[in-house]
Amino acid sequence: MGKLRFTLTYLLFWFAIIFSCLLAENFSLFASDHMGGMEIGSLYLLSFFVILLLVFYYILERKHNGIKIDTVLLCAIATFGLVSILTVCFQGTRTFTDGIDGAVGTISFSPEVKFQYVLQIIIWCAVLYGTLYAITRYSISRKWLKWLALVYIVGLAGCAIVDIFLESNKIIGVFAGNYQGDITFIIYNSNVWAHLLLIGIFSCIVLCLKRFKPYYYAAMAFFFFMIIFTSCTTAIFVSITVMVAYTVFEIIAVFYKNRKKLVTYLAAYIGGLIVFSAVFALMVIVNVDIFANFWDFVFKEILNKDYSTLTSRTGIWASVFGLLSKNPIDFIFGLGYKTGNAIFTEYFMTYRDTGFAIRSTHNGFMEVFLRHGLLGVLAYLTLLSTFVFGLVRLIKIKQYRVAYLYSLCFFGILVHGMAESTTFFTPNIGGMYATLIFFLPVAKEAKYNRLKLLNKDLQERDIPTNKLSNSEICYCLVSLLVGLVLAVASVFLCMGNTFTTPELVIYICLLSVLVLALFISPALSGARNKAYWSALFRPIANKIVMIVVTIVLAVISAIILQTFFAFDIFSRIMFSLSVFAIFSLGSLLAYGIKACPVVDEMNNRFTRLLQKVSSEVPYE
C-alpha cells in the first residue's frame, strides 16, 4: 500500500491476493474432482498461510510506508463483512417441499462448515481492504497493471497452445465431421475457459491503450478462435461485438483527420466482413467438407439453442426470486456468501428436477442478490457508479481513447455477467483480476489531483545509495535459504511415513538442491576463506533460537494435522510454505527488517525505478 516503495511488500501483496482467491474458489486443485472442494486440512492450511501473508504485509507497510487506516473504507468493508458473517452464522436448516410430486430437499450447515465460511469472509475482507487502499493511494500504478495483463496473456496463450495438443482430436473432429461430446479444454468447465479467454481479449485491448499493436490484435484473434470451440454463446457474441467495435475505433483513430480515407477504410473493412461471410456461405452451400462440417458444429452447438429461455437461465433466475421471496429478511440481506449458493443448489434441484446441480445463478447481479440481498445489489451498483465518475474524469482531461477502450471492456464484462456469474469485487481470481485491470484504474481517476501530489512527492524523494559488501549480500541470501531448507525438511521429516514414492523423490531432490545452494551461495557472492564460512554460518548462528522454535512448531503442527486430517499434495505444499512463513515472520519480529541491509538496498533500487516509471504522464 503506501506508495509502493518496498519490493517485498509489493510481492506479498500479489501473493496474498492469489492465495486468498484460491481459498475463496475452494477447488480441489490436484484431484480429479475439481468441484468437490479442498480437503479440510488443505483449507485450514491455506487459510493459515494467507493470514501469515497478511500479517507480513501490514507489518512491512506500517514500518516502511507509514500506512494509516482509511476510516471510511475500513468501516464500509467491516460493515459488509459483519453482515455477511451474521448471515452465515444465523443460517438455520432449510427444508423445501415440491407441491407437485412431494419431493423434499433439506440442507443444513454444521458449526465447522460455518466456521470455514466465516474464515473465508474475514480473509477476503482483509484482502479487499488492502487492494482498494493500495489502488486509491497510488500503490499500484497503471504501469504495473499493464505488466500483470501481459503476464495473464502470455500464461493464457500457453494454456491455449497446450489445449490444442491435448484436445487436438476433438478440434480436428469438428472439421472432419465426427465431432462427439463437449470440448472441456484444459479447464474443467468450458464456460470457465471461455470466460478466461474473453478476459484475455479485454487484456489485449488494455495493452493497446497508447496505440494499436498488431501482435496483441493477433492474440485477440487467437483467443476468439479458441472461444468458438467452447460453444459458450455469450462469450462468442460479446467477443465478436467487442472486436468489431475495437477495430472500427482504431480505423477512426488513425484516419479521423482525413474523412476520405476514413470512409474508404471503413467501407473496406465492412466490405471485407461481408465478402468473408459470403465466401464462407458459398463453401457451405457447395458442401466443401471443412467449411460444411465447421458450420454444422456452429449451427448445432452455438446457434441451435433455446434462446427463448436463454438456455434455461430464465428458469434459474425465477428460482432465485422464488427462493428469496419466501422470507423478507432473505430478500433484504440475502442468504450469505457460500451458504446462499449451497441453499440455492438444493432448492433448484428440488423444484426443477434437472438431474444436475446448479452451483451459481449464471448472472452476476443475481449472484450478488442471492448472496447479499437487495442491500448487496445497491452497494454493488454504487461501486459500479464510481467507474462512471472516473470515465467522466477521463473525458474531461481529453483522454478519449482510454475512456472508450476501458468502457468497452467494462460493459463487455457486464454484458457477459448477464449470462454468467461474472462480477467485479468477487472473491475469486477472475473477479479480482477484472477489478484490478479494468475497473480500478478508471475509478481512481477521480483522485487525479492526489495522484499528481503523490507523484511529485516520489520524484522529490532523496534515495540513498548503500554500499554493501559481499558478506552482507550473502547474509540475506543464506538466511532465506535456511528458511527454505527448514520448510522442505519439516515436511520430509514430519510426514515421511505418508509419502507416495513420487512425492518422496521430489522432496528429496528439492531438499538436496537447497542444501547444495546453502553451501555454495557464499562462494557465488565472492566470499573467500574465513569470510566464506562466516557468511555461511553467521545467519544460522544468529537465528539458532528461531530455527529451534520453528522446528518444534513444525513437528507439533504436523502431529496435530496428521491426527485429524488426510494430507494430499496441496496440503504438503501449504504446510511447507507455512513453515517458511513462520521462520521468516519470526526473524522479522525478532531482529527487525533493517537487520538485513540487502532488503533496504532492494527498497532503494525499486524506488529509483518507480521514479522513472512514475515520471511518465498517465495514458499519454
Q: Give the helix tally.
A: 24
Mean pLDDT: 76
Order of helices and strands: HHHEEHHHHHHHHHHHHHHHHHHHHH
What portion of residues belong to β-strands? Answer: under 5%
* Shape designation: globular
Strand order of the largest sheet: 1-2
Low-confidence sequence ranges: 1-5, 616-620
Question: Brief description of this entry?
Answer:
The protein has 620 residues and is mainly alpha-helical.
Give the SSE map:
Elements: H1 7-25, H2 40-64, H3 71-89, E1 94-97, E2 104-107, H4 111-136, H5 142-166, H6 168-176, H7 190-206, H8 214-230, H9 233-255, H10 259-285, H11 289-303, H12 313-324, H13 328-333, H14 339-352, H15 364-396, H16 400-416, H17 429-443, H18 448-460, H19 470-494, H20 501-524, H21 529-542, H22 544-564, H23 569-591, H24 597-614
Antiparallel strand pairs: 1-2
Written overview of the protein:
This protein is mainly α. The chain has a domain of 143 residues. Helices cover 74% and strands 1% of the residues. It contains 24 helices and 2 strands. Strands 1-2 form a two-stranded antiparallel ribbon. Helix 7 packs antiparallel against helix 8. The longest helix has 33 residues.
